[in-house]
Specification:
heterodimer, A: about 240 residues, Rossmann fold, four-stranded antiparallel β-sheet, 9 helices, globular, B: mainly alpha, flat, binds adenosine-5'-triphosphate, binds magnesium ion
Chain lengths: ~240, ~220
């Protein structure tokens, strides 16, 4: 059974329909990657799932449970189950690394303080930043900030993790440390939807590649199928352009 | 050059100068506090209210920031009595300074509102924060930190430049007191030297207080000089 099932999801910015019926699904512990040209709606898919961009049609199910985005409470139910990491990290600038990780579990979920703290330390260890617990974000490199953002997202124990071009804003030599952290999560069996332009990484980590264009899914399949032998003209065109670089 | 400094008469009247300094400090603090309140209301209106109110705020800010404080205070003290509104000189000074501070702090706070990063708010939302939690944990700390230097500077401006306008309508704050006393003994040089020193001490104390507050509350690495 699909762990995340997105079916015919639509979303608009004002009157512009940006998602024109998006359908895909992934099983528990699987990793789907969204690829496609700029402006095709990849970020919007993740934002819609998190209730940041209003969903105007279609359905989303997580572990068989129907998510509705029609009230603040229902949006929160979706946010309970998923977490997102953005391209620009979006850490809370006025807080330390540790505070970034523990704010939501402590103040919003009201979880037990000792458990939250020890879980936060475990996560910092996982992303290789145990020594940075008391640093502020402006004292960290981009790669370090992005790993903190990853740990912050995990601190709420999401069932599904959404990653939106988490390495695009980084200097090349910092990309790998973030990808390594994602690899570890994959090994732990985290279910993820990843938007990425790093095709080598996509090929290595994805169970499923979803190719989007103009707000629709054009093709979906295994990395081999989509990257090596795309069936549609649009996908062939896209991959020939980016793989040439 | 055979001027002989005689500070004796200044020390004799030092308690009067201290009184003036205290009044200066009080006027600065009250005008600043009142101005902060006005600024908060106006900046909020400017950000969220319908356009007639926004235009009203704009008029207030433009009118105040584009005219000298002295004119505003003369208007209150010499102008309004012609229309039947008569207040004491201290009241006129305080009202004028407060309105003045309100306009400048509206500008500063408004810039702070605009500087809140939407992306940080979205991060908060996706972590499940309610609107109130976003205001408390993200918006207020961010605004406080980003406007802190401008606000701290402005407090010094009000304290030193703003209040001294009072001398021209006979308020016995530090400058007024210095002028009064100098005019009696003709010891201008001595009085003005001592009073300048007192202003420096006053702003020094205020700066230290503000820097400590900034470091403690907003993690701003404020310098005292
Ligand atoms: N806040 C917004 N307001 C209006 N239109 C928007 C907004 N954000 C995105 N769009 C539009 O929605 C469409 C999809 O954007 P989206 O960000 O999802 O694309 P993307 O596939 O993530 O692109 P990229 O690879 O450049 O990140 C684009 O046409 C974009 O112009
Ligand atoms: Mg995008």
């Amino acid at each position: 059974m699909a762990h995340l099932a997105v079916s015919d999801v639509r979303a608009k910015y004002g009157t512009l329909e940006v998602l024109k019926g998006v359908t895909f699904s992934i099983g528990k512990g699987e990793i789907a990657t969204l690829v496609g040209p700029s402006g095709s709606g990849k970020s919007t898919v993740l934002r819609a799932l998190m209730g940041l961009t209003p969903v105007t049609g279609g359905t989303v199910e997580i572990a068989g449970e129907r998510m509705n985005y029609s009230s603040a409470r229902e949006v929160r139910a979706a946010r309970d189950r998923m977490a997102i990491v953005f391209q620009q990290y979006n850490l809370f600038q006025n807080m330390t690394v540790m505070q970034n990780l523990t704010l939501a579990p402590l103040k919003i979920k009201k979880w037990d303080k000792q458990q939250v703290n020890s879980e936060a330390r475990r996560l910092l260890g996982l992303v290789g930043l145990s020594d940075k617990a008391d640093a502020y974000s402006d004292q960290l490199s981009g790669g370090q900030q992005q790993r903190v953002a990853l740990a912050r997202a995990l601190a709420l124990k999401p069932q599904i993790l959404l990653l939106d071009e988490v390495t695009s804003a980084l200097d090349p030599e910092l990309v790998n440390e973030v990808l390594d952290a994602i690899r570890k999560l994959a090994d732990e069996g985290m279910t993820m939807v990843i938007v990425s332009h790093e095709m080598a990484f996509v090929r290595e980590i994805a169970d499923k590649v979803v190719f989007m264009d103009a707000g629709q899914i054009v093709e979906a399949g295994t990395p081999k199928e989509i990257l090596d032998t795309p069936k549609t003209e649009r996908a062939r065109d896209f991959f020939s352009k980016i793989l040439r670089h | 050059m055979n001027y002989r400094f005689q500070f004796g008469v200044v020390w004799d009247n030092f308690p009067l100068l201290l009184e003036g300094a205290l009044l200066t400090f009080q006027l600065g603090c009250f005008a600043f506090a009142g101005g902060a309140l006005i600024g908060l209301v106006c900046a909020t209106l400017k950000t969220y209210a319908p356009w007639p109110l926004r235009v009203l705020v704009d008029c207030y800010v433009v009118f105040i920031t584009n005219t000298p404080a002295l004119i505003q205070i003369y208007f209150l003290y010499f102008g309004l009595p012609e229309l039947g509104f008569r207040w004491s000189n201290e009241a006129c000074l305080l009202i004028g300074l407060t309105l003045n501070a309100g306009a400048y702090l509206t500008l500063i706070l408004r810039a702070g509102f605009l500087s809140v990063r939407v992306s940080e708010i979205e991060a908060g939302q996706t972590l499940g924060m309610s609107l109130i939690q976003q205001v408390r944990y993200i918006i207020v700390p961010h605004i406080a930190k980003s406007i802190y230097p401008a606000v701290a500077n402005f407090f010094i401006v009000i304290l030193v430049m703003g209040t001294s306008v009072g001398a021209l309508i006979g308020v016995d704050e530090l400058t007024g007191q210095a002028i009064n006393l100098s005019a009696v003994n003709y010891r201008w040089l001595e009085y003005l030297t001592v009073v300048a020193g007192m202003y420096v001490v006053l702003t020094f104390i205020a700066s230290i207080g503000l820097a400590l507050l900034g470091r403690w509350a907003f993690r701003v690495k404020a310098r005292i000089f």
